Amino acid sequence: MKRLRCAIYTRKSSEDGLEQEFNSLDAQREACAAYIASQKHEGWVLLPEHYDDGGLSGGSLERPSLQKLLQHIADRRVDQIVVYKIDRLTRSLSDFSKIVDTLDAAEASFVSVTQSFNTASSMGRLTLNMLLSFAQFEREVTAERIRDKIAASKRKGLWMGGQVPLGYRADGRTLKINEAEAKTIRTLYDLYEQHGTVREVKVAAGKLGLRSRQRVTVAGKQTGGVAFDRGHIHHLLTNPIYAGSIRHKLTIHDGQHDAIIDPDRWDRIQEQLQDGAAKGRARKTAKQRSLLCGKLFDESGDRLTPSYTKTRAGVRLRYYVSHRLIKNSGEANKDGWRLPAEELEQKVAQVLRQHIAGPAFVGTIFPTASAEMIRTARAILQSLGAGKPIKPVLDLIDRIELRPGELGVIISAKQLAEAMEFEPKEIAEEALALTASFQLRKRGVETKLVFADDPGDRDHFLIRNIARAQGWYQQIKDGKTISEIAATADTSNQRVQQMIELAFLAPNIVKDVLHGHQPTGLTSNWFRQHGLPTDWQDQRDLLATL
Fold first, then answer.
1. Nearest to 386 by CA among 361, 357, 344, 412
2. Cα–Cα dist 274/195, whole Å
3. In terms of C-beta density within 10 A (0-12 exposed, 13-18 middle, 19 or more buried), how is residue 507 classed?
4. Fewer CB within 10 Å, N or C, the chain?
5. Residue 357 has pLDDT above 90, yes or no
6. Which of 91-105, 165-179, 399-413 has the lowest mean pLDDT?
7. pLDDT at residue 461 tops 90
8. Residue 296: enclosing H or E segment and its boundaries?
9. Could you tell me the residue ranges of all domains in the chain?
């Protein structure tokens, strides 16, 4: 008789009641265990490991215990999943098809103890698909109904809950002014009209001792009560709720609460804020110069021309583009270079700094110089080192040649002599050429250069999130709930659920991230918007496309 290793999976959408000694998850497990015992004559054996997800929705596969179970199935440590009802496993038809694919690949199956079917037969799969279709329909209709109700209520100017804004207190479906806090709001608006920039408002508010509202979380932890930062001040200055309005997505409706700031005055301040932001972008754009203009050439001798695009926010993004790509714009299959300008300038400056900082550089280019002259020249070169502006360094370059896998730099004898306070004729020009090897990394139409001595662009935010996710996953294995973890980390349940899948990254991907060699598009934001396969090879294949 074949031995079937059975794993019980339990889930509950809300956390209500989970603190009880015998809760819904225990009841589900008990029913499944009894069913497995009744099938002992068929060779069914209950595995001791628990796979429980408390307080997590069935609309997503991003559940720690489910991911762990699917991995164990892929590793062929489980032959059959047993659940109380099909919707405990998932409420999404597309997610169910992914689970079935995993089961099929591992020659495993799925059984619901309260519904007479299993995935081992075609009729069972048909019945499951029908039930899941209705479960998904019910979930989506419920969500639409809630969204429509919120939208209709906000059109009427009602307050629909959430964090009560500073200056108000909740009063049913409306807001009442909290006079003590409203004084702070009025002061911030006065300061902006007086100073004209959020930066100066922050400084002035700090001197006045203005503080944010102090809040107490459900877990009893105190937050807030700190000085306002620039982001918080900008949010308060642009929040239409202070003009007596309610925002719903991109639409603003008249609210039923009293305004703290006169609506006409609020509108004037919004125009002032937009004008200030536009001037700031213009100042930033005006400072951007293409420092390698006229110096960059590719392997065919074609010059790389400065170019730029604009984001929706009006920010210029600079590039160096092979001239033939601009000249023959629109033609298909044209080969050439398109490099982010600011990054290329920084990398070239880094390569040149490393070269001229070498102990033998000065003596090589000035073979006839005295010891005193060499010491003076080295001191001048040190003033061009890391942390200093890159323009004086790039001004030393006469020509840069881009070749596959190699960057050639020719230093200008004239510019170097002027910088070193030498005569150009004293310089050994044969020592002015240097090369640096690199690898290409593609991202869409852009090409990124990664140099051999370059430690890589380490994404410290992503590294911290991976470490945090691994810590959270260990806490889950130790028996903590998502809510307990979120409360300890002072974050939301959704945030924990979104980021905990980072704990399941393949080891070599984690190693690449630690060394800054991950794909350019692999960021924390990417993980928020995309699902991650449980199989390590599938992860590598997916990330190879970024």
1. 357
2. 15
3. exposed
4. N
5. no
6. 91-105
7. no
8. strand 296-297
9. 4-150, 168-286, 296-451, 460-543
**pTM score:** 0.40
Cα 377 from Cα 543, distance rounded (Å): 47
- The rounded distance, in Å, linking the Cα atoms of 314 and 294 is 26
Q: Report the C-alpha gap between 182 and 188 in whole angstroms.
A: 10
Cα 468-470-474 angle, rounded to 5 deg: 115
Q: How far apart are CA 238 and CA 261, in angstroms?
A: 11
How high is the pLDDT of residue 9? Answer: 94
Q: Which residues pair with 480 in a beta bridge?
A: none
Q: What are phi and psi of 95, to 5 degrees?
A: -65, -35
Closest residue by Cα to residue 89 from 48, 118, 121, 122: 118
Using CA atoms, how far apart are residues 325 and 41, in angstroms rounded to an integer? 72
One-letter amino acid of 544 = A
> DSSP of 226-294, one letter per residue?
SB--HHHHHHHHH-GGGGTEEEETTEEEE-SSPPSS-HHHHHHHHHHHHHHHHHHHHHHHHH---TTTT
Q: How many of the other CB atoms lie within 10 Å of CB of 179?
A: 9
- Cβ-in-10-Å burial (0-12, 13-18, 19+) of 39 comes to middle
Comparing 348-357, 423-432, 475-484, 533-542, the range with the smallest average pLDDT is 423-432
Q: Does domain 168-286 have CATH number 3.90.1750.20?
A: yes
- Give the residue-averaged pLDDT of 324-345: 75
Q: pLDDT of 500-524, one tens digit each?
A: 888 888 888 888 788 777 766 677 7
- Report the alpha-carbon distance of residue 76 to residue 94 in Å, rounded: 23
Q: Which of 91, 74, 73 lies closest to 82, judged by CA?
A: 73
Chain-centroid distance of CA 367 in Å reads 52
What are the residues facing 252 on neighbouring strands?
A: 247
Task: Say if residues 358 and 377 touch (Cβ distance below 8 Å).
Answer: no
Q: Which fold has domain 4-150?
A: Rossmann fold (3.40.50)
Residue 326, amino acid: I
Contact (Cβ atoms closer than 8 angstroms) between residue 529 and residue 508: no
Residue partners of 432: CB distance under 8 A and separation at least 6:
365, 398, 410, 411, 412, 413, 416
Paired strand residues for 45: 5
Q: 445: buried, middle or exposed (CB in 10 Å: 19+, 13-18, 0-12)?
A: exposed
| Contact criterion met (CB below 8 Å) for 246 and 240 | yes
Q: Dig out the tokens for 214 from the structure.
A: 């102090």
Q: What is the DSSP string of 460-475?
A: HHHHHHHHHHHHHHHH
Q: Supply the pLDDT for residue 309.
A: 81
Residue 163 in tokens: 């964090």
CA distance 56 to 72: 20
